[in-house]
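Record type: monomer structure entry
Structure origin: computed from sequence
Chain ID: A
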Amino acid sequence: MLKKKGILLLCLCLSVVVLAGCDSGSELTAEEQDKIAEYSAGILLQHYGKYSRRLVKQETAAPQNTGLPVVVTPVPVEDDKEPVDEDVVSEDGEPEENVNPVSLNDLYHVAGMNVTYRTYAVCKEYPKKTSTFQLTAKRGKRLVVVQFDLKNTAKKPLHVDLSKRQIEYSLEADGASYKPTIAIQENGGMNYLDTKLKAGGSEKAILVFEIPKGSSGFGSGVLTVKEGENAATVQLKK
């Protein structure tokens, strides 16, 4: 009880000193007076047994909301994928094919067989004289017969079968492209060749194209033989 009275007396003294100072100088504002009262109450309560003074740490001030949008800077992500090669596109917008120029023998690659271009003929019927069969052009058309010589360079018989291979033939003439027709030949013709060559022997094989009658006088025909990326070209000449 005596301790409480001492505390009250101390607060009273402080108040008198503060008020005396105020009289000697400028008057205190209401805010300053509130601070003095709060300080005096704090001194009084910290000596009171049921009061434990706690120091409260201020938390880190949260960012103020300025009302402005938050700007997020995008971080570029590197692509670890390998670059993909794109197809080369020609001027007409179509992908260009990879072509590997080769000779006729390299394209057919039949061991022991030698292939050479011989000549061509433009006609309405082929052959002109025959006792078995004859190819006849349709009305308004003409036949272009391209002839090849096949030779077996080996010392034993050679069986040649090109009928199951994906060999393509095309004839460029007068700015147009033509595909071969079926050649009614015993060996099937070059596009369906299936024959047996004797050791050291040779025989003829043909390709037959049908073109408009007005193109029968062409002199710059080019034959292309293609399989996969390999292609052989033959300039038709007599």
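Annotation 1: The longest strand covers residues 141-152.
Annotation 2: Residues 21-25, 50-61, 84-88 have pLDDT under 50 and may be disordered.
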